Task: structure prediction
Amino acid sequence: MIALTIPDIRKEDIQLAVDVLKSGMLVQGEYVQRFEASLAEYVGVEHAVAVSSGTAALHLALTALGIGTGDAVLVPAFSFVATANAVRLSGAVPVFVDISQDDYNIDAGLLEKVILEYQGSEALRAIMPVHEFGCPANMNAICRLAKEHDLLVIEDAACALGARVMGQHLGTFGACGCFSFHPRKSITTGEGGVLTTNDASLAAQLRLLRSHGLSRVNGHIDCLVTGYNYRMTDFQAALGINQLLRIDENLAKRKVLVNRYYEALADHPELIFPTRRRGHVWQSLMLLLQSGDLSECIQSAFRKGIQIGPGAQCIPCTTAYGVKQGFPGASQCEKQGFVVPLYAGLEPEGVDAVVAFFRNRL
Ligand SMILES: Cc1ncc(COP(=O)(O)O)c(C=O)c1O
Result:
């Protein structure tokens, strides 16, 4: 079976995690600190705060920035549900904006329209752009709109570690960036996430909130705010430390494989490829099936030993959100979008097998 993804975990990664397990010091400690320092340096920010998942990162970002009940946050209609769930978990309301089918990111023109026409009773407080599948959202337009309308920017960069626009890492354009280390991301700690920011007081608030709101004051431990247990364990951090050293090599390999897919299949009449954006790190390559039954295509690939799978959700169309119409881009992408095998260790022959599968359907 050619898998959708296989994490790049090597002997040295496992050894470091085993060292932690043998030490008996399992919870957040020295390795989390080391991982945070390396991440901050890599992304080019003052502070990195490791947490238990990308979802926890998003939730903490909103909460630490004071967003909650009575507030609204602009989010793309097409993403993993965690983007909107985090907004709801904070007490705020997600306001969905449709995406562009070119790159699956929030449509900046529509975003402006939604901001200008917004009439909800909650106060618009922030834009949470998603760099879908590692493709940079239009940060120039988003930051301009945020400035004009006095909105915060919280980047959902879950899929975009290592992506840079004009030399600047994604996750550093707004108040803070949120990353995920789920196994489908370019580096993984099993579950895990990190927040990046240059704001020292925000970082302090994030650290407080991730660990029950507890702090030592004059030698006495006090609970300063109602917090969460969103800590990363030391053995998870240990697993990530060496992977981070290899990330640029890993991203370069993905790019070569993506080029191979484009060269061999971009002219395929059944398939629509996304427009390639500068800085894309290709956490996934999602294609659209022009017409026909996607589940038939997925099953047929599976029978040939190839794993292809659904991309992301039209979040407002899910049962939990219940808005069935008004997002043609997102619903089309959910209906017809699928991701193909892509990971640093995938051999070119793996791509060729996927190519052959689609060529043989003609
Ligand atoms: C765009 C996006 N946001 C948020 C998340 C949530 O991250 P996690 O699974 O680490 O909670 C994901 C994860 O897959 C994601 O793709």
